[in-house]
Design brief:
By secondary structure, the protein is an alpha/beta fold. 19% of the residues lie in helices and 22% in strands. The protein folds into two domains: 163 residues, no CATH class; 239 residues, 3-Layer(aba) Sandwich (Rossmann fold), CATH 3.40.50. The protein is built from seven helices and 18 strands. The strands form three sheets. Strands 1, 3, 5, 12, 14, 15, 16, 17 and 18 form a nine-stranded mixed sheet that branches. It is elongated, with a radius of gyration of 25 Å.
Length: 423
């Protein structure tokens, strides 16, 4: 028989890398009525306690089951319904929309061929193997004849085309192409002009722009591939992009919903296909082995501002490793660090969702803080979470605060008293 005094715990910031987490919760026989409890907005959710595992962690007035000892003495009527179950829920995954922008200028023929060869095998296949729900949107001129060496034509399994060149693109379940010529300096301005179709694609396949292929709940990942730089500055582009659709890309000056990766003309590291990380400075030197016109400082800054990776474009023969690295980064980011599925209870029992609490320990000797449950996102704060789609989802403010702690930890507890926050 499972113990009634259990909880699950995890340590941050390694949340995204965990393959599983153990979850336990208070259960009640399916035929019983829940205990009559009045939610206390000033009670458990906002109390500070010394430790979620010590008897002192749950004051008698809270009604919490102490995870490391006996149930609170003040809640004898609740003990019968506070048995628990244990399971291993997986981190939730977020859908990802990947927007690839490929420069069609004459100097990009080798790179365009490598992109064609790698989108299916080393980007899409890696994502498929990782179980990511993704869409790939290519913004680049379609190759309709053999003479268009710097254009891109994508075949099966991503697209519906059996062979290339072809008269026009053919979309697949995960692939879309907005066919427009991308010049050396206009990637960013073109992204803005094609978003809602101000500049149309040559085949009229997306009259409302590439925006119609984006999903509302997806993370947006951009991949720029060029040997030059942009005339539009990074900050101005991000501001204009967020102004177009803050719900898609972020708001208030924070591009929180997008990541920008770059394959550009910056100098190689000692291992040529190793990426530059966001914390590394903008590189002034250009890569070797191919003619490039700029190390792409604007695109470097976009990658740094959004947590993206930067790769040298000269290493087009090593694009297999580059695209695999980008795909692996996308797959890792698709796991929501602040959302966890709730397993089904044992047969004949049910979990009492209004009695879920989250204990947050900032680390460094600071006291434990209890997060309570709010009923909708409009009531969110840094002390709260929601139950949505059979999952515990931390409020954005709480997620940000908790991920900022180097030694933070979380405990999710199903208690014997309602933990709802009334705002």
């Amino acid at each position: 028989m499972p113990s009634r005094n259990s909880l699950w715990s995890l340590t941050l910031p390694a949340l995204q890398r965990l393959p599983w987490l153990a979850l336990v919760g208070a259960c009640q026989p399916a035929g019983d009525k829940p205990d009559a409890q009045v939610p206390d907005p000033a009670g458990v959710p906002r109390q500070e306690v010394d430790s979620p595992r010590s008897p002192a962690a749950a004051p008698a007035s809270s009604g919490l089951v102490d995870p490391g000892g006996a149930p609170a003495a003040s809640t004898p009527a609740a003990t019968a319904s506070c048995s628990s179950t244990r399971a291993e829920p997986e981190l939730l995954r977020q859908a990802v929309d990947i927007v690839v922008v490929l420069d069609n200028s004459g100097s990009m023929s080798d790179e365009a061929g490598s992109v064609e060869a790698n989108l299916n095998v080393n980007l899409a296949q890696t994502l498929d193997d990782s179980g990511v729900d993704y869409r790939l949107i290519l913004i680049s001129r379609h190759r309709s004849s053999d003479g268009q060496r710097t254009s891109a034509c994508i075949t099966k399994p991503l697209s519906g085309l059996a062979q290339c060149p072809a008269d026009q693109p053919e979309f697949g379940p995960r692939f879309f192409q907005y066919s427009v010529e991308v010049g050396s300096h206009d990637s960013l301005s073109l992204l803005l002009d094609t978003y809602a179709g101000i500049e149309a694609d040559e085949f009229g396949l997306a009259p409302n722009g590439w925006s119609e292929w984006l999903r509302a709940d997806s993370r947006k990942v951009f991949l720029e591939i060029t040997d030059d730089n942009s005339r539009l500055e990074a900050a101005a582009f991000l501001s204009d992009l967020m102004a177009l659709a803050p719900e898609q890309f972020g708001a208030n000056g924070a591009p929180s919903k997008l990541v920008w990766h770059s394959i550009i003309g910056l100098a190689e590291k000692e291992v040529a296909t190793e990426p530059y990380l966001p914390a590394e400075a903008v590189q002034d030197a250009e890569c070797n082995g191919n003619s490039v016109f700029s190390p792409g400082p604007t695109y470097q800054e976009l990658s740094r501002l959004t947590g993206g990776l930067r790769f040298p474009i000269c290493q087009f023969e090593g694009y297999d490793r580059v695209f695999q690295a980008i795909a692996n980064d996308v797959a890792t980011r698709s796991q929501l660090a602040c959302g966890f599925a709730i397993p089904a209870p044992p047969s004949g029992q049910r979990l009492e969702m209004d009695k879920v609490a989250v204990a947050y320990s900032p680390g460094g000797g600071a006291g434990v803080q209890m997060l309570g449950q709010v009923t909708d996102a409009s009531k969110c704060g840094d002390d709260a979470f929601l139950i949505q789609d059979n999952a515990v989802q931390l409020c954005p403010q709480a997620c940000t605060k908790i991920n900022a702690g180097d030694r933070a930890s979380l405990d999710v507890i199903f208690s014997c008293t309602s933990t709802l926050i009334l705002r």
